[in-house]
Amino acid sequence: MKDQISLLIDIQKIDQEVRSLNTKKQTLPDRAAALDQTFRAGRDRLEEERAGLEGLNKLHRERESELKAGQDRLRKARERLLEVKTNKEYQAILTEIETIEQANGRIEEEILVLYDRIDERKVALRAHEKEFEAIRADYEAQRRKIDEELASIDGALQEQKARFEDLVKNLEPDLRRRYEMIKARRNGIAIVAARRGTCSGCNMNIPPQLYNELQRSDQILCCPNCNRILYWDDSANGQ
After folding, report:
1. Alpha-carbon distance values, 161 to 21, 63, 64, 177, 178 (Å)
2. How many helices (H) and strands (E) does the chain have?
3. Residue pLDDT, tens place only, 156-211
4. First CA to last CA across the chain, in angstroms?
């Protein structure tokens, strides 16, 4: 029976390791999702800034075209000025020239403002592109780490599964069922040590007769309070 108890102790260690690995594994998708969200937010922000700069460049091109058209109109008006025959016609063309010059002046001012805004946007964009490259590098490193952790955990789980199968085939079927039943009811802990007269599972005192029987380790005995399987721990009992 001592061999069966030793098997149970080793099997429970495997169960606890598997439980710990699965708990760790379950946190990885959340970590990956948080990383993805941070990366997408940085990328979206950068794309918005690039789109904003392109919008300013487009507006600048439009104003340049309007200015060129205005300058053409001004040149033609001045050419017509040389051909007028009446004072009335002369005054009308002068008014037209003045109107065109005012319009061209407003466009030139707008173009100058756009130049400044474009320059500011370019400086900000370069800074954010640099920041985003740092975010990208960190993101890719963290994602690689998560993938490596996941692969490592899967490998460890496979290893623990093989160890479990190797051990459990030597365990008596009835004892295995009993172990599984207690484990399910006691939060994964089915077998615990008896230490200095108490059950290390529930910390209740063990009856003296039961405590003495445990030292022989020749039968499966359970704690009368928590019903976990008890085993004698030499190191904890000063032996």
Report:
1. 12, 71, 72, 18, 20
2. 4, 4
3. 999 999 999 999 999 999 999 999 999 999 999 999 999 888 999 999 999 999 98
4. 20
Residue type at 98? E
Tens digits of residue pLDDT in 44-74: 999 999 999 999 999 999 999 999 999 999 9
Q: What's the length of the chain?
A: 239
Write out the H or E segment, with its range, that includes residue 116.
Answer: helix 87-168
Tokens read off for 199: 């059950």
Amino acid (1-letter code) at residue 69: A
* Residue 222, strand partner residues: 229
Rounded to the nearest angstrom, the gap between the alpha carbon of residue 190 and the centroid of all alpha carbons in its chain is: 36
CB 206 within 8 A of CB 231: no
